[in-house]
Amino acid sequence: MTAVGSDTMMSESEELRCGARKKLKPYVRLNLLTKREHEKDKCELCERIGSLMCRNCQVTFYCGMEHYTLDKDIHVVLCSRVKELRKPIEFNSQAQTRERWLKQRRIRMEELYKFTWTRGQAHLEEGKYDSAIPAATVSIKYANELFGQAPEVIPPLLITAECYLQKGKLKVADGFLARALSIEATWTDIRPFIKARIRRNEGLIHLARNKLSDALECFAEEIYQSTEEFGPYHIRTSGGYCYLGHVFHLQGRYETSTSLFRQTVKIWIDHLEPILEEMNHQSYLPFIAGALKTETDRVWMEDPDKFEGLRLLTKCYIQQLETPTSHATALDHATTCYAISIMNYICERYNEAKAKAAEGQARILQGSLMKNTINSKLHHVIRFCDKKLFQLEKTTAQSSETSISE
C-alpha cells in the first residue's frame, strides 16, 4: 500500500507545461439517443450520464453545465494527462511490454491522485470551497480505482466533507465523514496524521452542532495523533492547539485558550523565521550535482501548509482580539501580527505582509513595548517587504519600457 504524503506531485512550472495557461476549447454536446446504454460515459464529478464532452481530451464527460463549470479550473491543468491516461493500451503479445505499460499508467494515475487531493487541500485552506470540491472529488475517483476502499481515499473524503461543512451543508458533510470513518474502522495501519485529520473533521462537525465537550475530545485526540507522527511542536500539530483553544474560548475559559493560541503562534514563528532569513540572505542555494537553484525556483513551503498557516494564525488573532485584555495582551497581538506578516511574505503578498507588520508595531506602541524584540523583528519584515516591492516596481517599469520601445 502506498503511503499518503503531502508533497505536491507537480510544481507550478510543471502545471503550466500541462496546460494551466491554455484555455479549454468549447465543450461538445453529445447526442445520447445515438448511443446504447453501455456506451454512455459517466460524469467526471458524479455517476450520472455525461451529456457534455471536453473537446480537447475527448475522454472527460459531464452531466451538465454546472459540473462542467465546477471542474473547469482543475481539468485545464490535467486535460492532456487525462487524455494520455485513458488512451486504450494497445495489444502486445509480449507480457513484459504490457506490464511496463500498465505500471506506467498506474504511476501517472498516482501522480494525478496526489496532485488533485493536494490541490483540493490548498483550495480548502484558502477558503475556495467551490474549487476544492471538484479537485477532491476527482481525487476520490482516482483513489478508488487505484486502491479500492483503502486509507488513501480518506484525505480527499475529508476535504470534501469540510468544504460542505463550511458551505453549511451538514448532512452532506456527514456522509463523506461516514465514508472516511468506515475505512478507518477496517484498517489498522492508517497514518497517525490521517487519524488526526479525521478527528479534526469530527470536531468541526460537533462544533457546528454546538457539542463543545465532544469537540474538545476530538481536537485533543487530533493533537495526540499528530504528535505521534510529527512531535508536539510541528506546524501540522498546531491546528489541534488552535481549534482546542477555539472551543475553550467559546466556553469562556480564556486563560487556557490564550495559552493554546500562544503555543500555535510560537510553533509557526519557530518554523517561519528560518525560512524568512534564508529567503533574504541567500540568492541561490546548492542543488543536486552542483547545479544551482534560484530563489524563484525554490519551494519554500507547500501551498496547503501556507494557506493553513494563514488560516490558523488569523483565527488566533481574531480570537485574541475577542479575549479580555487581562488574558490576551498587546504583546500577544503584536506577536501574532508578526507571524501573519511572515506568512504573507512567504506567500509573496508583500503589501499584506507590510500592513500586518505595521499593525503589529501599532500594538507595540499601544502597550509601550518599544524595547521588545518583536518590535525590531517587525521592523525587519517591513524592510524586507519594501525591498521586494521596490524590485517588483522596478521590474514592472523595465517591462513597460521594453513594450514601448518594441
What does this structure look like?
- With 406 residues, this protein is mostly helical.
- The chain has a domain at 243-401: Serine Threonine Protein Phosphatase 5, Tetratricopeptide repeat.
- It is built from 14 helices and five strands.
- It has helices spanning 12-17, 65-85, 95-126, 129-147, 154-166, 170-186, 192-208, 212-230, 235-250, 254-281, 303-321, 330-346, 350-366, 373-405; strands at 28-29, 52-53, 61-62, 284-286, 292-294.
- β4 (284-286) and β5 (292-294) form a beta hairpin.
- The longest helix has 33 residues, at 373-405.
- The model is unreliable at 1-13, 15-21 and 283-297 (pLDDT under 50).
- This is MYND-type domain-containing protein.
- It comes from Elysia crispata.
